[in-house]
Amino acid sequence: MRKLIFALLCTLAISAGAQTVTRTQHRAAIVDDAVTTGSVTIRKPDYICISTAADQEQLIMDGTMFTMKTGGKKHVTDSRKNRQFATFHQVLKAVINHQPVTAGEELTVNDSNGLRTITVTPAKKKRQMFTSFVLVIDSKTWAIRQLRMNERAGNYVNYEF
User: Fold this and answer.
1) Are 25 and 59 a contacting pair, CB within 8 Å?
2) Which of 59, 80, 122, 149 is least enclosed by beta carbons within 10 angstroms?
3) Backbone region of residue 59 per phi and psi (left: phi > 0; alpha: psi in -120 to 50; beta: other values)
4) DSSP 83-140
């Protein structure tokens, strides 16, 4: 029975769009970057789960709720209450659903060499966990290639898909 359930879960993960991801955490004060691998699952209309380091590090977007588990701490925010995440949520939802993303007040879009780079930078940087989000997608297939979440002092977390 356990093998059957495990096979079913693996099949659901593959059919739901599971793929591999490499997470790089850069800290300016530390010489070596922390690199881990894991999986990403994307389901329409707006669900993404990035899990690395044997589920120790997770980034989940489930509708308007964003949950980030890192370093033994859990951070939760709702994009309906956080403007930066609201913009980021709109971008991710558009990418998942293959809809156009247009530049705006906190959003820049650049196309180069078949890749579209979308940068979300908050107008108000007060009390924000991230200074910007940079999402790189394939212009033709809409596949997410990279997600970089920039922090203060040159620190960042980068996901390569």
Assistant:
1) no
2) 80
3) beta
4) HHHHHHHHHHHHHHTT-----BTTEEEEEETTEEEEEE--S--TT-S-SEEEEEEETT
